[in-house]
Amino acid sequence: MTSALAVGVVLVVTAAAVVTPRRAVLALPAVILLSPYLSFGALSLRVEHVLVPVLWVIVVAKGRFRFVCPVSSRLWLLFVLFLFCVTTFRVTSGNETHGFASGVYSYVLVFMLFTLFSTVSRTVPLLKGIVRSAVYCSVPLSLFALLQTLNVGWATNLTVDGYTSTSRVSVAKLMELTGYVVRGVSVFESPVYAAQYFLLALAASVFLLIEGRTASGWRERLVYAACAVFSLLGGVVTLSSTFVLGGACVAGALFLLARKAAGFKVMFAVLVLAGVLAFSLPLLVEENPAIQGNLLYQVGRITSLSVLETRYDPDLGQTAGTLRAVVESPFWGWGWVEHRGAFVGDSLYLTQLYLGGFIGFLVFGAVFLDGVPVVMRGKERGVKIFALWTAVMFLGGIGSPTLFAPRVGALWWAAFGAGAGQAARMRRDVRD
Fold first, then answer.
1. How far, CA to CA in Å, does 53 sit from each of 112, 118, 259?
2. Boundary-marking domain end, from 65, 98, 115
């Protein structure tokens, strides 16, 4: 049933793209966030795996818009080519590939997603629309996460049937002891990924709430306030230290990015949200030892400053094998091949070091050192929120593959591409 719904979504968006490609591309972030998996036997695909190439062909290859390929996107292609060459060398040396086809496809998909949004956004600004999609979707997604945590039967069944990939076992692990999703994952399959999304939605909704110029009236501000509350509740039920630490960083950043005149509004909004958090926690942990135990564990990790110890301990940490592999081949890495003990689904930075070594990591970093400042020089609405999102994603990358996290990563790359396209339009207007 859920797979048929996903197929219907793909067909509707594709048909819309033929008629009005701009609206189809603008709807894509919400579609990525909300649509269930496309399941074909043992194969599970998210809708962006199909829709992004289809829309890219319709929008770019057919010439409806002037193709925009910023320097950062060319650097990304160089990075992908380097990883491909490293993998080929490793395979010829006797190593076994590990997710080679899916790795290449996911990295090429990033290029297509980035250039798709930069191309369309050069003509029509998309960044603010992407931000609003993320904010509005926080309401159903947070409610879904709350229902999972409260052990509502149909929510658990929908999670397993429509929002769990056959290649991921995180939801199954959460259900091992209690039989339900004790930590809210919403549609993201992992509490950490869900926490990252709710941080993005919370940062955007609070900023839109306090920045008076972006809201047309009290009704719109009321909507942003509601979205902020739902984002906070969604983040709380993930029971993730990522949300707690990230929320503190976001609160500090909001004080810096907001207008000086809005300082008291920021303070008021933060206090209100903190109050909601304080009142919601007792309701969640009351008479529920599973939630209480998870919450106490996460709080203990934060207060004891051992949040990253389980990952980066050189002997017992989750990334110990990956660290040893990086030390063994520090300059050009291992590519998409299997190395004994290595795990590439954790830290964003360690994963890129494993794949491409220091050489590949320099190219990887150059993508953002070139592209992010270009976006930040733009004067379009949404640029400050993009700065917040970038900070959340790159700080979260210490312990999570944020830029490649299901759905969340695609949302950020779409915003990155839209910002780059708007910057290209601004340069064109200056020349004209």
1. 7, 15, 40
2. 65
Tokens read off for 193 = 């990924």
Average pLDDT on 243-251 reads: 79
What is the pLDDT of the chain when averaged over all its residues?
82
107, containing H or E segment? helix 100-121
38 DSSP β-pair partners? 45
Q: Are residues 131 and 259 in the same domain?
A: yes
> pLDDT tens across 72-96, in order?
999 999 999 999 999 999 888 877 7
Alpha helix positions (H), 153-240: 153-162, 170-174, 191-210, 218-237
Fill in the DSSP letter of residue 345.
S
Residue 326 belongs to a domain: no
- Residues 73 and 59 reside in one and the same domain: no
C-beta of residue 322 within 8 angstroms of C-beta of residue 354: yes
Q: Which amino acid is at 46?
A: R
Report d(CA 400, CA 349) in Å as an integer: 9
402 exposure class (CB count in 10 Å sphere: 0-12, 13-18, 19+)? buried
Instruction: Give 12's Cβ-side CA count (13 Å radius).
Output: 11
Q: Do 143 and 32 share a domain, yes or no? A: no
Domain that holds residue 227: 69-308+346-429
Q: Is the dihedral of CA 32, 35, 36, 38 positive or negative?
A: negative
**C-alpha 195, offset from chain centre:** 10
Q: Quote the crossing angle between the two packed helices 263-285 and 289-303, to the nearest 10°.
A: 130
Are 59 and 204 found together in one domain?
A: no
269, β-bridge pairs: none
Tell me, yes or no, whether 262 and 166 share the same domain. Answer: yes
pTM of the model: 0.88
Give yes or no: residues 61 and 92 share one domain.
no
